[in-house]
Design a protein that fits this description.
Oligomer: single chain
Largest sheet: 6 strands, antiparallel, barrel
Strand content: 25-35%
Helix content: 25-40%
Structural class: alpha/beta
CATH topology of the largest domain: Rossmann fold
Radius of gyration: 21 Å
Number of helices: 7
Shape: elongated
CATH class of the largest domain: Alpha Beta
Number of domains: 2
Distance between the termini: 25 Å
C-alpha cells in the first residue's frame, strides 16, 4: 500500500495566495499522512475555521493584517483554538513578527522539501497530539451502564475518545441522564469505569456518553491507549522519517 492509499491522520489548512508555496508545503504534508485543504481567500478560510476542525493551520504572512486575523480566529474558534499554527514568511523580519504575534512554527522562504520537512518534524508530535484529543477509535466491546433506580443497560461500544464513548443498545438512553459506564478495551486490555452523562441519542439505539469523571491514572492510561491506536494508523514511511538515527 502506498501513501496515497493510507488514511490521513490529521488535516491542515493552508491560507495563502501563493499557489507554488502552497503546492510545495502540501506535497510534504501529504508525505507525512496529513490531509491538506487550502484557500487563497482569507474570508473563506475564516469561515472554514468556524465550521471545521483542523489539527494545524498555515498562514501566509504576506497577507499581513489578514494573516493576524486568521491567527486570532483560529485561537477564538471552539474547534481550532489549540491547533498548531505555522506562518509562511518572506524574511527574518517577517519571521520575528510572526513569532511575536503568536505563531508557533515558521516556514521561511525560499522553501525546499528539506526545510519544510525539518520544520514539520519538530511540530509533528504536537499535530499528532492535537489529533489524539479529538480522535475517535472504532471499537466494539460489551458495556454496562448503571444508573440510580434504573435497571442496568447492557450495550456495545461503537467508538471511544479521550472525552467519551458512543454506545449501541436496545434501550433508549435519555439525554442528560447520568450514571456509570463499564467496559474493557482490548489489545492491550484496559478496564474503564467512568461516571458519565448522555449527551446525544437517536432513534436507532445509538447514544453518546461524555465522561464526567475518570481517575487521573485511568485517564492517562486511556490517552496512552488511544495514542497507540492512532500511531498504528501511521504509514511505515512516516515511521521511518521519525525513527532516531
Amino acid at each position: 500500500m502506498d501513501d496515497s492509499e493510507t488514511r490521513a491522520i490529521a488535516t491542515v489548512l493552508i491560507v495563502s495566495p501563493d499557489s507554488i508555496a502552497t503546492s510545495q508545503i502540501s506535497d510534504v504534508l501529504r508525505e507525512h499522512a496529513l490531509s491538506v485543504e487550502s484557500s487563497d481567500n482569507p474570508s473563506i478560510a475564516l469561515h472554514r475555521l468556524q465550521q471545521q476542525k483542523f489539527e494545524a493551520v498555515v498562514v501566509d504572512a504576506a497577507l499581513e493584517n489578514e494573516a493576524i486575523a486568521c491567527l486570532q480566529h483560529t485561537r477564538a474558534s471552539p474547534n481550532n483554538r489549540t491547533a498548531v499554527t505555522f506562518a509562511l514568511t518572506r524574511s527574518s523580519d517577517d519571521t520575528a513578527a510572526a513569532l511575536r504575534h503568536g505563531f508557533s512554527f515558521i516556514f521561511e522562504r525560499p522553501l525546499t522539501p528539506e526545510s519544510i520537512s525539518h520544520t514539520l518534524k519538530v511540530a509533528y508530535g504536537l499535530i499528532v497530539r492535537e489529533r489524539r484529543r479529538h480522535f475517535r477509535y472504532p471499537v466494539v466491546v460489551p458495556a454496562v451502564l448503571t444508573r440510580k433506580n434504573t435497571p442496568e443497560v447492557f450495550a456495545c461500544t461503537v467508538n471511544i475518545s479521550e472525552n467519551g464513548v458512543a454506545l449501541n443498545s436496545s434501550v433508549a438512553l435519555e439525554r442528560g441522564s447520568q450514571g456509570t459506564v463499564q467496559f474493557t478495551l482490548p489489545d492491550p486490555s484496559l478496564q474503564i469505569t467512568a461516571e458519565c452523562k448522555v449527551c446525544w441519542n437517536n432513534q436507532k439505539g445509538f447514544a453518546g456518553l461524555q465522561f464526567l469523571f475518570l481517575p487521573s491514572d485511568l485517564a492517562s492510561h486511556l490517552q496512552a491507549w488511544l495514542a497507540q491506536k492512532l500511531e498504528e494508523q501511521l504509514p511505515q514511511l512516516v515511521f521511518e522519517k521519525f525513527r532516531p538515527s
